[in-house]
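Quick one from the shared queue. A colleague (R.T.) flagged Chaperone protein DnaJ as missing a structural entry in our internal table.

Convert sequence to structure tokens.
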Amino acid sequence: MGRDLYEVLGVPRGSDARTIKRGFREAARKYHPDVNSEPDAADVYKEISQAYSVLSDPDKKARYDQFGEAGLGGGGGGPGGGVEVNLEDIFDSFFGGGGVGGSPFGGGGGGFGRAQRTRGPAQGDDLRADLELDFKTACFGGQEKVRITHLESCGKCKGDGIEPGAKVTTCDTCRGSGVVMQVTRTPLGNFQTQSACPTCQGTGQSVEAYCAKCNGQGVERKAKQVSVTIPCGVDAGNRLRVAGEGDAGPRGGAAGDLYIFLDVKKDPIFTRDGVDVASSMEVSAADAALGCSVATPTLDEDACEVKVPAGTQPGTKLRLKGKGAPALSKPAQRGDLYVTVNVKVPTSLSDEERRLMEQLRDLQAK
């Protein structure tokens, strides 16, 4: 799954179950192979179905929100992980309960309505921050701080956008509803729409004066340091979600979320492939031939004694079970440490060393 799952369903990040279900129904209605004859409709519908199978499951959704696709462990929304929707359900969601065989216009006077959003509280935007971790922090987790600039609720008006002490009355145009109705006549009947009241911009209120500090938006921009808990086992490219640390919503709306994209610094000793970690050590030609024990560093910072068998060849990898990195958010499940043996060949020899090496060569030649 390359695309963001919320984007696939056409809903904002962090949407609740009801919004996710509505987004799925609307997308399914458009791309279901039974109603869409485009060549790629089936593939698009499959992607929609797989996205819904993750976001409709509270546990999978929580892991996806926190870690992105990495949190699904490869099984959240892959092939076979989708859901099916009945074609009649699609028409039901489109026609408001009429079903396939019912009248799309219902029984309410030969028309149907379409609502527009009003100028009430609005959801705040999500924000992105980048964070580079030390190698071992990525492996074992820890606490980090990220400095961001985001919108917070205005300290003067407390987020409602109204100047303190200003008089607030009911809007005369919409009589407090925040919407106005308009009827358009068509050959199929009257088409009724409602839109935000142009006088009060959907608030239903007539305000004497809006807050001068935030210009009526209810938010102001501030810098802040956010503490972030890093779970064990994260890797470069993972994403962490910090709920409610995005921009505050205009006019008292809920704040968006902060998404932190991780990178990991290179370590001078270790490299990593998932939960497995690799390092190297150097032994002499004599030790490689005769065998030896060598102390090698591990992620746990305690040197581990490694037995090098006699006759070890250059490039041999020795496995230290359970000395790798922890799995994502599972500290008890660790990978392995693979130590590559490099054989050091001397570049200069003393007279005695040369004599012994020549004797060894002669013996091996017999």
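Residues 17-31 form the longest helix (15 residues).
Residues 147 and 225 are 4 Å apart (CA to CA).
Added to the table.
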